[in-house]
């Protein structure tokens, strides 16, 4: 759950590509800065297709300024600068509701028509109806806190099929040999009843995914990093995959995606793994031969037989990064492109991969060849962008939430 001035003219794969500017329709501050050259280093694949032109046209701006907004079911939801949860109409930017219960101070995301939030202080998790902004349920941290421990923090909260799944860290009594302990737990979203919990002896990674009745997560254990699959109904371990070896504690598993019976996950050593989702057996691994690759970033995107992912530094969110495309069935590298800051992928639109960076820029990359022929500056800093089809919602760097429509023409 939580990463961006090149602009007007870009030289890419031998073609001079001009970024379209539509007078009076572009976002404020957009398309300014110095020209830059596309980086071909590490790119592979077919010859570059004709480039598409990118334009982002502003639809509205709102006085709200959300942290990590999410667009869902006609609304944009996020945690405001006032610490309260807000929802605005995705079409107009008009305020829909405000949920200012201090027991819901940390926005976890939107799932199954519910806004999920937790308390930083006591770990209470609340489900808030997306349409009305009214509380639907509440689950106290004590429901999954083992005797002799106290709740410390959540590293991930996911809601699926009427169940709240949590990765959590707990404090141990003073004087204990270890500083804390971990567990992954499942709670009934309607009642708060604990369905199951699995204590984790070592360090539980933050990444968590629940797909097709299976919970996937990583554990840093003595001797290496392991990827686990647990039955979503019972918590029973289905399999355990040894992702990497280490003399001490293993590394972190940082991003997970599941598609067509395969689990793809990246780690903080720069390795992308593919594992059979039913058996937990290795299919392939891929490690980009690109300078500066240290960690796979969320989210991974799987589409039309290709795994797309971003990588960056483990020590800074504002360092350089890269975007990669890998064949989903074999791990064969298709292309890699450097980015000026760590990328965040947003999915595909009209044959182009969309991603933004903390430099405030929205980019497109041809899904087949990887060349990034066009970009638009959304913000002076991190745009904190979220997407819904061809709509983008983002922080414009002026303390306001903006909505824009993306168009890709030509090609």
Keywords:
single chain, 411 residues, mainly beta, Methylamine Dehydrogenase, Chain H, 4-stranded antiparallel β-sheet, 0% helix, 58% strand, globular
Structural description of this entry:
With 411 residues, this protein is mainly β. The chain has a single domain (6-410), classed as Methylamine Dehydrogenase, Chain H. It is built from no helices and 34 strands. The strands form 9 sheets. Strands 4-34-33-32 form a 4-stranded antiparallel sheet, with no helix packed on it. The radius of gyration is 22 Å and the shape is globular. It starts with 5 loop residues before the first strand and ends with a strand. Mean pLDDT is 84; it is low at 1-49.
SSE order and pairing:
Elements: E1 6-12, E2 15-18, E3 34-37, E4 52-62, E5 67-72, E6 75-79, E7 85-89, E8 95-99, E9 106-111, E10 114-118, E11 125-129, E12 135-139, E13 150-160, E14 163-171, E15 180-188, E16 194-200, E17 203-211, E18 214-231, E19 237-249, E20 253-259, E21 262-267, E22 272-276, E23 282-286, E24 295-303, E25 306-312, E26 321-327, E27 333-339, E28 343-349, E29 352-357, E30 361-366, E31 374-377, E32 386-388, E33 391-395, E34 401-410
Parallel strand pairs: 1-3
Antiparallel strand pairs: 1-2, 4-34, 5-6, 6-7, 7-8, 9-10, 10-11, 11-12, 13-14, 14-15, 15-16, 17-18, 18-19, 20-21, 21-22, 22-23, 24-25, 25-26, 26-27, 28-29, 29-30, 30-31, 32-33, 33-34
C-alpha-based Rg, rounded = 22 Å
**What is the CATH homologous superfamily assignment?**
YVTN repeat-like/Quinoprotein amine dehydrogenase
| CATH-defined architecture | 7 Propeller
Structural class: mainly beta
Strand content: over 45%
Q: Which bin fits the share of residues in helices?
A: under 10%
> Largest sheet, order of strands side by side?
4-34-33-32
Number of helices: 0
Mean pLDDT: 84
Please outline the major beta sheet. Answer: 4 strands, antiparallel
Low-confidence stretches: 1-49
Number of domains: 1
How far apart lie the N and C ends? Answer: 34 Å
Overall CATH class:
Mainly Beta
CATH topology: Methylamine Dehydrogenase, Chain H
β-strand number: 34
Shape designation: globular
């Amino acid at each position: 759950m939580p990463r961006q001035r090149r602009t007007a003219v870009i030289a890419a794969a031998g073609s001079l590509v001009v970024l379209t500017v539509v007078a009076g329709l572009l976002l404020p501050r957009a398309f300014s800065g110095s020209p830059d050259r596309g980086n071909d280093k590490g790119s592979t694949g077919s010859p570059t297709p004709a480039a598409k032109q990118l334009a982002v046209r502003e639809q509205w701006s709102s006085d709200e300024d959300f942290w990590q907004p999410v667009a869902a079911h006609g609304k944009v939801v996020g945690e405001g600068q006032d610490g309260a949860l807000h929802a605005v109409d995705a079409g107009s930017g008009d305020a829909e509701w405000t949920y200012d219960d201090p027991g819901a101070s940390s926005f976890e995301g939107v799932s199954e028509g519910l806004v999920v939030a937790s308390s930083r202080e006591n770990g209470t998790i609340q489900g808030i109806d997306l349409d009305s902004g009214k509380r639907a349920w509440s689950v106290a941290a004590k429901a999954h806190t083992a005797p002799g421990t106290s709740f410390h923090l959540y590293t991930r909260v996911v809601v699926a099929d009427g169940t709240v799944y949590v990765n959590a860290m707990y404090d141990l009594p003073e004087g204990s040999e270890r500083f804390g302990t971990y567990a992954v737990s499942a709670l009934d979203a309607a009642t708060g009843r604990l369905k199951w919990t699995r204590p984790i002896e070592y360090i539980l990674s933050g990444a968590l995914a629940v797909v097709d009745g299976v919970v996937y997560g990583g554990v840093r254990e003595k001797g290496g990093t392991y990827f686990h699959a647990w039955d979503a109904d019972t918590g029973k371990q289905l399999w355990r995959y040894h992702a990497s070896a280490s003399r001490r504690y293993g590394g972190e598993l940082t991003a997970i995606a599941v598609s067509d019976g395969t689990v793809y996950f990246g780690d903080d050593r720069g390795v992308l793994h593919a594992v059979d989702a039913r058996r937990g057996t290795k299919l392939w691994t891929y490690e980009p031969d690109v300078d500066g690759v240290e960690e796979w970033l969320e989210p991974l995107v799987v589409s039309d037989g290709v795994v797309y992912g971003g990588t960056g530094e483990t020590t800074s969110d504002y360092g350089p990064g890269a975007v990669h495309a890998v064949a989903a069935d074999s791990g064969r590298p298709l292309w890699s492109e450097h980015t000026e800051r760590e990328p965040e992928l947003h999915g595909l639109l009209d044959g182009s991969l969309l991603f933004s960076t903390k430099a405030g820029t929205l980019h497109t990359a041809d899904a087949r060849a990887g060349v990034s022929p066009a970009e638009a500056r959304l913000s002076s800093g991190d745009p904190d962008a979220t997407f819904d089809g061809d709509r983008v919602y983002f922080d414009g760097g002026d303390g306001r939430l903006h909505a824009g429509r993306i168009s890709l023409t030509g090609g």
